[in-house]
Design a protein that fits this description.
It contains 8 helices and 10 strands. The protein has helices at 3-10, 61-68, 91-101, 117-127, 132-145, 161-173, 191-206, 218-221; strands at residues 17-30, 33-46, 50-54, 76-81, 84-85, 102-106, 179-183, 210-214, 226-231, 234-235. α4 packs across α5, α4 packs parallel to α6 and α6 packs parallel to α7 (191-206). The structure holds adenosine-5'-triphosphate (ATP) and magnesium ion.
Length: 242
């Protein structure tokens, strides 16, 4: 073997895929019944992409998102996140990756109901043991960034749905994750506030974040950089995505 060939053979395989799923399957067992929600999915996302995952109800979108976000692991197949093989990690290691790399946004906002916008955004910073002065600076900057500088002291009951989702996005950004995962982030919002949330994702995309949203709404999906379609637990290469 020539020196050149030897060097080439030793070179690590570098990809700019931040997310790489290969032949991922996920089976859920309830009692004696096993259901395969993902039946061998290949999925790749490049760093800085804005992707929409679409598909009918029950097609496996949230299952896929849970795996991408290290909330769950595949039953078989490989999941590589940032060049790290995730499917062999234990729950503490998964939690560590989640906290460092991923921000989650959910359809139902999942805010603490009795806490203010400020306190909701503070939660992940407390977990990350950020000191009080830095917490305050970061929370104010985050709430300004999502357009809520004047709602710092409002509780969820004192905000609109769109505003609540903005607080949830500020909270997702608190630990400066590279990846934002959003499961139906506009599902509980009217068209106008949903549009505002998509606009905010666009701004985050422009700032370099990798963004993956699940949506039922093709109008929203079309505003992303690329649409990925699922159907019955498989990649759908032909369908219209709904
Ligand atoms: N924890 C679980 N235990 C058993 N079955 C589950 C579990 N989670 C999901 N499933 C099943 O797996 C399939 C895919 O579910 P998933 O939540 O991923 O679908 P989805 O595409 O997100 O649907 P929706 O658009 O309604 O949110 C469904 O048939 C669901 O019933
Ligand atoms: Mg779902």
């Amino acid at each position: 073997m020539s020196n050149e060939m030897l060097l080439a053979a030793q070179k690590p395989v570098l990809t700019d895929n931040v997310i790489s799923m290969n032949n991922v399957r996920k089976a859920y067992t309830t009692g004696k019944v096993t259901f395969e929600a993902l039946k061998g999915v290949d999925f790749h996302a490049r760093r800085g992409e804005f992707l929409a995952i679409v598909g009918p109800s029950g097609s496996g979108k949230s299952t896929m998102m849970n795996i991408i976000g290290c909330l769950d692991i595949p039953t078989s197949g490989d999941y590589v996140l940032d060049d790290q093989v995730v499917n062999k990690l234990n729950s503490n290691q998964l939690a560590d990756i989640r906290n460092r790399k991923i921000g989650f946004v959910f359809q139902a906002f999942n805010l603490l109901p009795y806490a203010t916008a400020y306190e909701n955004v503070e939660v992940p910073l407390l977990f990350a043991r950020v000191n009080a002065r830095q917490r305050k600076e970061r929370i104010m900057a985050l709430l300004s960034r999502v357009g809520l500088a004047d709602k710092v002291a409002n509780k969820p009951t004192e905000m609109s749905g769109g505003e609540m989702q903005r607080v949830a996005i500020a909270r997702a950004l608190a630990n400066e994750p590279d990846i934002i995962l959003a499961d139906e982030p506009t599902g509980n919002l009217d068209t106008k506030s949903g549009g505002g949330i998509v606009q905010l994702f666009h701004e985050l995309w422009q700032s370099g974040k990798t963004i993956i949203i699940i949506t039922h709404d093709m109008n929203i999906a079309r505003q992303s950089g690329r649409v990925f379609k699922l159907k019955d637990g498989l990649v759908d290469t032909n369908g219209n995505g709904i």
